[in-house]
Amino acid sequence: MSSLQRASLWGQLKRQVSLAIAILWVASGCRLLDFDSCMYELRTVTVEGRLIETSEILYAYVSVEEQRDYQPDKFMVWRLTSAPLRGHVTSMTLRDAADESKSLFVFPASNFQNDISSGTVRQSDGPSLNGIFDAISSERAVIDVRTDIPGRAQVRFLPPLTVHQEWYRPKCG
């Protein structure tokens, strides 16, 4: 076999191998280069609801996600809105109804539209989010809002559970 024929065969072989690698990469959903797949698990829980008497007093959305195994962490996002309470709130606390003497999280005040509090927090950035997932998933999470309004010094709300996803591996499958 001449060197010209060998070069031609080598060129064809390189193209076929390159094509096979490209097909495998696309067929695997690009997971051949995804080195952290199946290395961690997530779980999520969300409560959302409205406290209505004659009109809406409070809207609450709280969602918590936890990650374990590879780089464990906890993350929470929330939004509390209330037109009637805005400007009168003195404190907002998330408590576990099983032991209301302890605060699971103190919501900071917000000045955005009708929000009385909104934001995100990651435990790896400092604040403890321990116990929040369990309280929410067990439907014991109470939002306790204190105000300076006479006759409405306290608003307590246990929003309904809307999402509950136990541990799963998002990149496996």
Can you describe this structure?
With 173 residues, the protein is an alpha+beta fold. Helices cover 18% and strands 48% of the residues. The strands form 2 sheets. Strands 6-3-2-1-9 form a 5-stranded antiparallel beta sheet. It has a 4-stranded antiparallel beta sheet with strand order 5-4-7-8. Strand 2 and strand 3 (73-81) form a beta hairpin. The longest helix is centred in the first third of the chain and has 25 residues, at 3-27. The radius of gyration is 26 Å and the shape is elongated. The model has no long low-confidence stretch (mean pLDDT 85).
Estimate the helix proportion, in percent.
10-25%
Number of strands: 9
Largest sheet: 5 strands, antiparallel
Secondary-structure element pattern, one letter each: HEEEEEEHEEE
* Rg of Cα set: 26 Å
Helical segment count: 2
General form: elongated
Beta-strand residue percentage? over 45%
Low-pLDDT segments, ≥5 res = none
User: Class by helix and strand content?
Assistant: alpha+beta
* Spatial arrangement of strands, main beta sheet: 6-3-2-1-9
Distance between the termini: 47 Å
Mean pLDDT: 85
Fold blueprint:
Layout: H1 3-27, E1 40-52, E2 56-69, E3 73-81, E4 89-96, E5 99-106, E6 115-122, H2 132-137, E7 141-149, E8 152-157, E9 161-168
Antiparallel strand pairs: 1-2, 1-9, 2-3, 3-6, 4-5, 4-7, 7-8
Short description:
With 173 residues, the protein is an alpha+beta fold. 18% of the residues lie in helices and 48% in strands.
